[in-house]
Design brief:
Strand content of chain B: 25-35%
CATH topology of the largest domain in chain B: Rossmann fold
Number of helices of chain B: 10
Radius of gyration of chain A: 26 Å
Number of strands of chain B: 20
CATH superfamily of the largest domain in chain B: P-loop containing nucleotide triphosphate hydrolases
Largest sheet of chain A: none
CATH superfamily of the largest domain in chain A: MetI-like
Oligomer: heterodimer
Number of strands of chain A: 0
Shape of chain B: elongated
Structural class of chain B: alpha+beta
Number of domains of chain A: 2
Distance between the termini of chain B: 72 Å
Order of helices and strands of chain B: HEEEHEEEHHHEHEHEEHHEEEEEEEEHEE
Helix content of chain B: 25-40%
Order of helices and strands of chain A: HHHHHHHHHHHHH
CATH class of the largest domain in chain B: Alpha Beta
Shape of chain A: globular
Chain lengths: 286, 364
């Protein structure tokens, strides 16, 4: 009974894995197939669409701009959100609902509405401050808030933040040291999660950039698609694979430490006895 | 230089003066004044919400007082932030930094003080030895038992050579056996280092066993402050009598500075109590039981209804008809007693406290 049940579960798992895998990989495979087609019906397979990525004007700049935006957005988001969340948790717990509401709000507003709202600000920015595409980072930080908030919130909830920060303060640490040496090292997976979600979102962003007249990766892909469908699809596959690789890194790097096994625990018990008697011996020896 | 060698520096006087702390609706501390003599261990004891933890947190600088002063070694530190007070603290919850080994935890405070690498290593080794954990120096918190974690926390607090040591119910998360052992260990280390220490607990046994002086608190006040024996045997108020140890509450009548309880006259701690009916508070160990002699019915003759074996002592519950009384005695003396045995009570004539009946509130 038990065995057959386990086997059925195993089969179920494999089926789910295969179906979902096909769902994700099918379209990417088809895109890859399309990007390697020749120009005529019977033409041999060619990688010319892929090699054209480097030579297509504007595409390289757009890729670099998107990567820069992804990095800037992640960093600004972390610097802005993490200390705020820690502070609210410790000092203003009554405000936590408000902060959560504010952070989740961008989810409920359609991107197009956000863009319309921000347009006047961006016109002002492009005239008075900078016309660099990196200014998009401001909008992107707002865009990634709901996802990064959730990831960081889960990480903070797993810590006894109050006790750890109070212990650090009693040992002489200021707030900067506490953030950098106590909070951040204890939630690596949450921070990685939040950052990679931000990176994936920024790399896939089209609406903001297009409507605010900036050329990021997705906008460039759309342009290239007008003249060379093969190259545009090749870039799209590459960016998907890149995001996929990031998520893989996330699931492997951000794992919590391996819990102590039963055997180790037993060992620790005896270790404690030994150390205690050691302490007693130390005392009489003094 | 050993940890004990810093004893001279550690022996400082700590004064809490008129500290008041109010929360939205409650007053956690109401003009608390408390002085800790250099090198002394004072335990603050009381039920939850009595203000003992607030007092400790004000001393640590983790909370701000509404009024009053905190003075350490003659220096007013009321407005000094927690991280500049140089106070070692052990918390109720496990507080080791999870991403650091025991040794790194201990070295953390030294790094904050910019102590050089070599000296840091030496001092970490030394305090870990002091708490008997040098062999676990390279373990992480999740690889250690609760008792070990609290000992590392103690080592970490002592490594910075603090002026004062604060212990906020450090044993309450541990099981009974580890608790008793670690309690003695803490006292040993505290005496070895000679550091002025404030220990907060709701466990009276812990407070009585470990402290030089015990302060019993209720609703933000110190009800009594004194050596453990005094607090136990001469409680200053009915609350202290009730909270510390078990107490029989037996009705009696106050007359001329003593209280008449079921025909026996017992002197009063405060002889100036006005005459009239009152409840006498009598410790179970002040009650003895006799099974021979005159067992004719009388106010002090009753029937045993239960005998609880507590190890070296036993606690006997006696039914006197209109009330029950607890008597505590050596187990050897209690072996003759079982439920149904007829006994005669005798009460030691140590001075007792009385509590007046609260007059019933009448509608206006």
């Amino acid at each position: 009974m038990n065995r057959s049940r386990r086997r059925r579960l195993q089969i179920f798992r494999i089926v789910v894995f295969v179906v979902l895998g096909a769902f994700f990989l099918g379209p990417i495979g088809a895109m890859f197939e399309f990007s390697t087609r020749g120009n005529s019906v019977n033409a041999p397979r060619t990688l010319s669409a892929w090699t054209a990525i480097g030579t297509t004007p504007g595409l390289g700049d757009a890729i670099i701009a998107s990567l820069e935006l992804a990095a800037i957005t992640s960093v600004v988001m972390l610097v802005l959100v993490l200390p705020t969340m820690v502070w609210v948790r410790l000092r203003l717990p009554g405000l936590s609902r408000v902060i959560e509401f504010i952070c989740l709000m961008p989810l409920t507003v359609p991107a197009i509405a956000l863009v319309v709202g921000m347009r006047p600000i961006y016109i002002w920015i492009s005239i008075n401050v900078t016309d660099s595409i990196l200014a998009l980072a401001v909008a992107y930080v707002i865009l990634v808030l709901p996802y990064s908030y959730r990831a960081l919130d889960a990480g903070l909830a797993a810590l006894d933040l109050k006790t750890l920060t109070e212990a650090a303060r009693s040992l002489g640490a200021g707030w900067g040291t506490i953030m950098w040496r106590v909070v951040v090292p204890n939630m690596p997976s949450a921070i990685l999660n939040a950052s990679l979600l931000s990176v994936a979102l920024v790399l896939g962003e089209y609406t903001f950039a297009n409507l605010l007249n900036y050329e990021n990766l997705q906008v460039a892909i759309a342009y290239v698609g007008l003249t060379s469908a093969g190259t545009s699809v090749a870039v799209a596959v590459a960016s998907l694979v890149f995001a996929f690789a990031l998520l893989l890194i996330l699931s492997f790097v951000g794992r919590p430490p391996v819990p102590v096994s039963k055997a180790d625990e037993a060992d620790l018990q005896t270790g404690r006895m030994v150390s205690l008697s050691g302490g007693l011996i130390g005392r009489t020896g003094r | 230089m050993t940890a004990g060698g810093s004893a001279g520096r550690s022996r400082v006087e700590v004064r809490l003066e008129d500290l008041t702390r109010k929360y939205a609706t409650t007053t956690a501390l109401d003009r608390l004044t408390l002085t800790l003599a250099p090198g002394e261990l004072v335990a603050l004891l009381g039920p939850s919400g009595c203000g003992k933890t607030t007092a400790l947190r004000l001393l640590a600088g983790l909370e701000e007082a509404d009024s009053g002063r905190v003075v350490i070694d003659g220096e007013d530190v009321t407005n000094v932030p927690a991280n500049r007070r140089n106070i070692g603290m052990v918390f109720q919850a496990y507080s080791l930094f999870p991403h650091m080994t025991a040794r790194k935890n201990v070295e953390f405070g030294l790094q904050m003080q910019h102590v050089g690498l070599a000296e840091r290593r030496d001092r970490a080794t030394e305090v870990l030895e002091l708490v008997g954990l040098s062999m676990h120096a390279n373990k992480f918190a999740h690889q250690m038992s609760g008792g070990q974690q609290q000992r590392v926390a103690l080592a970490r607090a002592l490594a910075i050579r603090p002026r004062v040591l604060l212990l906020d119910e450090p044993l309450s998360a541990l099981d009974a056996k580890v608790r008793a052992r670690l309690r003695d260990e803490i006292r040993r280390v505290q005496m070895e280092v000679g550091i002025t220490t404030l220990f907060v607990t709701h466990d009276q046994e812990e407070a009585l066993a470990i402290a030089d002086r015990v302060g019993v608190m209720q609703s933000g006040h110190l009800e009594q402050l004194g050596p453990p024996t005094e607090v136990y045997s001469r409680p200053a108020t009915p609350f202290v009598a009730d909270f510390v140890g078990l107490t029989n509450r037996i009705k009696g009548v106050v007359r001329d500075g003593s209280v008449d309880v079921r025909g026996e006259s017992i002197p009063l701690v405060h002889p100036d109590v006005a005459d009239g009916p009152a409840t006498a508070l009598i410790r179970p160990e002040a009650v003895s039981l006799a099974t021979n002699g005159d067992l004719a019915d009388g106010p002090l003759v009753g029937i045993v209804i239960a005998v609880a074996f507590l190890g070296a002592t036993s606690r006997v519950t006696v039914d006197l008809g209109d009330t029950t009384v607890l008597a505590q005695m050596p187990t050897s003396a209690a072996t003759l007693l079982k439920a149904g045995t007829k006994v005669r009570l005798a009460m030691r004539t140590d001075p007792v406290l009385v509590q007046r009946e609260e007059p019933a509130t009448t509608a206006p």
